[in-house]
Amino acid sequence: MRTRLAIIIIALLSLTACGGDSGEELQPQQQEVVQDSIPTLKGEFIFLADAAVFKGDTFVYGVKIDSLSRQLAQEVEAYKEDKFDMIPVTLKVKIVPNPGMKGWDEFIEIREVLSISVPREEPSESASN
Question: pTM of the predicted model, to two decimals?
Answer without folding.
Answer: 0.63
